[in-house]
Amino acid sequence: MRRYLYSSIGVACTAALTLPLTLTLALPANAAPPAAPVVSADPGIPGSTQSLALVPLDSDRSAGSAQGLTKSDVRSFSMVGVVWDDPAVVLRGQVEVRVRSIATGEWSDWQVVDTDNQAHAADPGTTEGTSKRLRGATAPLWVGNSDGVEVRVQSSVEGRATQDEALPRGMHLELVDPGEEPLRGAEGEAPAGAVLTPESAAASAVNAELAPLGADTIPALDKEQTEARLFRAEDNETEEGAVEGVADKGAAAGGATAGSAAVKAKYIGPQPRIVTRKGWGADETLRERDFAYTTSVKAAFVHHSASGNNYTCAQAPSVIRSIYRYHVVSMGWRDIGYNFLIDKCGSIYEGRAGGVAKAVMGAHTLGFNTDSTGIAVLGSYGSTEPAAKAVTAIAQLTAWKLGLYGGNPKGKVYLTSGGGNRYKKGTKALLNVISGHRDGFATDCPGARLYAKLPTIRSKSATLQGR
Predict the structure, then answer these.
(1) Is residue 208 domain-shared with residue 320, that is, in the same domain?
(2) Cα–Cα–Cα angle for 388, 400, 367, nearest 5°?
(3) Fewer Cβ within 10 Å of end Cβ, the chain: N or C?
(4) CA-to-CA distance for 172 and 16, rounded, in angstroms?
(5) Kind of pairing, strands 93-101 and 111-113?
């Protein structure tokens, strides 16, 4: 039987967290010696969050039907969102913001912030899902580098007497500064002479069999190279890893502590290029230190970030840093919710820490985070057509990731609901191996235009696997 070679390095992760304050990058024995060291070890400014309480905007304040802020001068920021005290409360109304651009000094038109965000969360009853730090929130909106803001939140609930009944309690406007870009190394390599914090070393170590410690990217491999890395050459017995059309329940990898197990596989797509957390500049001190794993990856849920389409591909790392900070600092999650993110140019980014080849437990599809992976395309795709490169990237990523666990992109699989508005807790739901967020939860995500691309994605992904 061919054996799964993405082995456990949980010990390496633990060791990384016990190292001194900085860690000089260690390269494989056959790697070329590093060039002249980088003088500065500063990976860039980590960013910040401004949290501003909203106030009533009604002339009759007892009505409580609107809250917000009038035009205000603030420190620079690039992403906005609104949060409130109780994560179980739904904001029934409309949120609009306008901002002042630092580049032009001009105020933007009013922009609508997506309030359909409650379905992006950890499963009910889990440690992350019951954390006292959690808050309700809108989706974050990317607005670009700004230093002025105005916001209004209008309730759609009629016949209410008080502010607390009409709108969620404790509403705050969150203004996120993503910080500066990190130091860059050569393609796929760590910056020569750079240093890592223990937290960064741990996040990188779980990908050590795919790229050098501290690398900015995990390189793309062709199908032959992917299979050579995955399977032991001396053990070439082939076995089916999935029943045709339904993912094999036994094709499990990604244990509770390190995410490694033998897996039977026959079909897998080429390993795609993936920008690591180090590559997009994650501040690893924000997230919780340990990694959370599920048993397997039986399905992939496709999302859009609902953060707007007004970003360039060069800004994508900044957008991701902002979403990460918003999820952790503003919403109270343990880490960014998605396992992977993809920009409009088709670049793939590592999301939640724990290892791109491992079964990392995310917080992307409320009720179905167990045995699944979440992939978010940066942008909003209710009425906007997703870029062809982004659609192709989803197919490439799912062909590889699902292939590690014996998943058939054109198949179906049973997943047990952890609780949600479409499937009650404990329900065994038969879902597509590549599903949209709305298939597991009643939501608009991933937007009508991106959802319509899923049949194409399934077909492309299966073809890349060799099916």
Answers:
(1) yes
(2) 85
(3) N
(4) 37
(5) antiparallel
Environment class of 381 (CB within 10 Å of its CB; exposed 0-12, middle 13-18, buried 19+):
buried
Same domain, 283 and 244: yes
- Tell me the CATH number at 226: 3.40.80.10
Give pLDDT, residue 159.
52
227 plus 364 within the same structural domain: yes
In degrees rounded to 5, what are phi and psi of residue 143?
-120, -5
Would residue 193 count as lying in a domain?
no
| 24 within some domain | no
Residue 396: which of 357, 355, 346 has the closest Cα? 346
Residues 6 or more apart whose CB falls under 8 angstroms from that of 303 comprise 120, 338, 364, 365, 374, 375, 376, 377, 436, 437, 445, 446
- Helix H, strand E, coil C: the string for the chain is CCCCCCCCCHHHHHHHCCCCCCEECCCCCCCCCCCCCCCCCCCCCCCEEEEEECEECCCCCCCCCEEEEEEEEEEEEEEEEEEECCCCCCCCEEEEEEEEECCCCCECCCEEECCCCCCCCCCCCCCCCCCCCCCEECCCEEEEEEEEEEEEEEECCCCCCCHHHHCCCCCEEEEEECCCCCCCCCCCCCCCCCEECHHHHHHHHCCCCCCCCCCCEECCCCHHHHHHHHCCCCCCCCCCCCECCECCCCCCCCCCCCCCCCCCCCCCCCCCCEECHHHHCCCCCCCCCCCCECCCCCEEEEEECCCCCCCCHHHHHHHHHHHHHHHHHHCCCCCCCCCEEECCCCCEEECCCCCCCCCECCCCCCCCCCCEEEEEECCCCCCCCCCHHHHHHHHHHHHHHHHHCCCCCCCEEEEECCCCCCCCCCCEEEEECEEEHHHHCCCCCCCHHHHCCHHHHHHHHHHHHCC
Return the structure tokens found at 161. Answer: 């007497």
* pLDDT for 120: 87
Q: Is 153 a member of any domain?
A: yes
Token pair in block for residue 172: 């705050």
pLDDT of residue 265: 57
Low-confidence residues of the chain, pLDDT below 70? 1-45, 59-64, 158-165, 183, 185-186, 188-194, 231-265
A 10 A CB-CB count for 355 gives 28
How many structural domains compose the chain? 2
Strand partners, 377: 304, 342
What pLDDT is recorded for position 269? Answer: 97
Task: Give the structural domain span for 131.
Answer: 51-177
